[in-house]
Predict the 3D structure of the following.
Amino acid sequence: MNLLAVETSTENCSAAVLCGNEVFSINEEAPQKHAELILPMCDKVLAQAGLEKQDLDGIVYGRGPGSFTGVRIAASTAQGLALALKLKCAGVVSLEALGMQALYGTDERYAVTAIDARMGEVYVAVYDKTGAYPKALLEPAVLKPEAAVLAVCRALGAHGAYGGGTGIDLLYRAGLNRNIIKRSQFPDGEFIVKLGAELFREGKTVDAAEALPLYVRDEVTWKKIPEQHRAKK
């Protein structure tokens, strides 16, 4: 299976390719530049893998939550590529990728992930990596740091965990157990594409028009491709 993944939900801009069993990825911390960087990064990582766009079997994207602009860039990039190439998409929650990064190379089972949501809040989730795909013990939510720490404690119980994301430092200051060691900072396309491959294997894919962001905040809206076209008329 050949998959291309894009992830732009945080300051990190990332593209990755799964070619058979091998993963190629590129990362650049470049706030405010994702829109201009992501397609050239896709071309570069495809070249590293020795693939053309026509060799792809699907598109994977980081759904968020994260920067509103960033998650829109990833979703619209995935929509455009999938529509042009007539491919299916799989959306990976960016907090899931952070969790799998935090647990990579360890025997730990649980991950606490948090992204700074600004406005004094964090996007937070807790995952159990047992099984083919991480299970959310605390579904992605946007909370004040103090409320997030309480929610994490309820979800984890007495279990140990590793942490990932820019919001972990905010949780430490709000009382999170510092034995939950932070091991990842930004979502990486490498883990987005790996998780996306499992979604493709399970048939959990969508058409281009349904490749939507995960905002968590209810007041944010997103228009699908047909709606975008109607709005321009």
Summary: The chain is about 35% helix and 30% strand.
